Amino acid sequence: MSSVNEPIQTVTNQNQLPAKVLDVKGLSLHVGDKCLIDNISFDINQAEIFALVGESGSGKSLTSLAVMRLLPEAIQVSSGDVVLDRIDVFSQTESQMQTIRGKRVAMIFQEPMTSLNPVMKVGDQVAEVLRRHLGLKSKAARLSVVELFEEVGIPDADARYDWYPHQLSGGQKQRVMIAMALACEPDLLIADEPTTALDVTIQAQVLDLLKSIRDARGLSILFITHDMGVVYEMADRVAVMKQGKIIEMADKNQFFSAASQPYTQQLLSDAIPAQELKSVEDKAPLLTLNELKVHFPVKKGIFQRTVGHVKAVDGVSLSIAKGQTLALVGESGSGKSTIGQAILKLVNQTDGAVTFIDNENVINLSDLSERQMKPLRKKIQVIFQDPFSALNPRMTISEIIREGMVSLKVGEPTKVWQDQRIDELLSQVGLDIEAKYRYPHEFSGGQRQRIGIARALAVEPELIICDEPTSALDVSVRAQVLKLLDELQQKYQLSYLFITHDLSIIPSIAHQVAVMQKGKIVEQGTVAEVMHNPQHDYTKQLLASAPELIRKAISA
């Protein structure tokens, strides 16, 4: 077995400029006879931010894994080279690569919660990198970690060293991941969708942090994303991947002003949904919240006595009209999803009323038992954020859609009628009727979200709660789902409570907007009133935190 300390083989190419940190030349990857990456080439210079964009499955993340040499065993490098700061990555032994990873090249992953060990203090996780690569002892490692935490903007860094991941916010967890990646001062940082799961304000902070570190350290960044607003904010150069090939590459200004490929032009078009405002008619409310409160008890001590309450929803009043959409926006933890759960009676409200108009009958959902609520569940449905975990993996698509019809006694109780209805629903959401025989894992994220919409429509609802239904989707798939929701609303006069932190989609989907902060509604009104003439400081902060490309579109 090779020693970790054996000399690393380097490329002595006199034509390679010293400023070139990464050079990918003619890279092709195969699994069996299937080509995953097809002869791609690009390079990244010192202190450059290079954005690699494209839809899911285009090969972006596989490219990053090839650079790190972390490809699954089944995937073979059929041709090409990856040269990292004059080191030929594919000629190194695994023990040499263990030295290179973290020290020469480091990676930030999309979801910080799954990337951090939940039973290990965050400071110790970063210190482990320093001990492994730099040989620092415990005291010196702790001092270095605290300095890193301060550099990435984690407050009270010395105390946060001893915190566990669950004690940190999403933005703070991502800052820990950035500190871990920067610990050994790598030449190249690979950021794989590092802001997808973050709110606009936290996203703005993380992007500003990465740019400031780039400037301070001369760090090169390979930034993988499908968010064109982030690309506009961050990139020096941009490459577009489609089906394993790089189809276009240009500097940022040329990319956004004169993209040459139709696919790239479509990506840019989908990135900023149509900003044409919907006409708002004065309609009677379908659902009304009156001073809704949801407080969760905080228990401490051996007897678990209640010592206080978390006011997740604190006196919220809203109404949603028939056939219209109310967009509920705000940061994570503001209480948006809790409102949706309270409407569905998935959490117990503390006070206030939730009233629903059913055939001109005013029903206070707050007073209903679960048995009394069940008939109304066909009237109020939900589309969840994550299409991957929202569908039962052991059920076929037919069984998933049929389940609601059977349990809520919708339509004729015959398999023939239900099969016909399932076929109609799949066609309505743009899926082939043969999909009903397949399982969720056989579909892409966008297709699964369409299945979730079909499941919600199966019981013929009047109100659908859309809880971040597009946040996990590529821009092109997002555009398709938003168009589908709009068409269904016009056809069936559906009402939506659309929970989101993506400000760019609000003009294309919503009639009214409510802005939520710390359990309270701080501003509400029409899209034009809230987006074009915000009154509350928090609303202004949200709009100011959006990427410049989004701000320009909203204000146009």
From TrEMBL:
The keyword Phosphoprotein does not apply. SUPFAM superfamilies: P-loop containing nucleoside triphosphate hydrolases. Signal peptide: none annotated. The keyword ATP-binding applies. PROSITE patterns: ABC_TRANSPORTER_1, ABC_TRANSPORTER_2. One of its GO terms (molecular function) is ATP binding. One of its GO terms (biological process) is transmembrane transport. Keywords: ATP-binding, Nucleotide-binding, Transport. It comes from the Bacteria. Residues 22-268, 298-543 form the ABC transporter domain. Belongs to the ABC transporter superfamily. PANTHER family: D,D-DIPEPTIDE TRANSPORT ATP-BINDING PROTEIN DDPF-RELATED, TRANSPORT ATP-BINDING PROTEIN. This is ABC transporter ATP-binding protein.
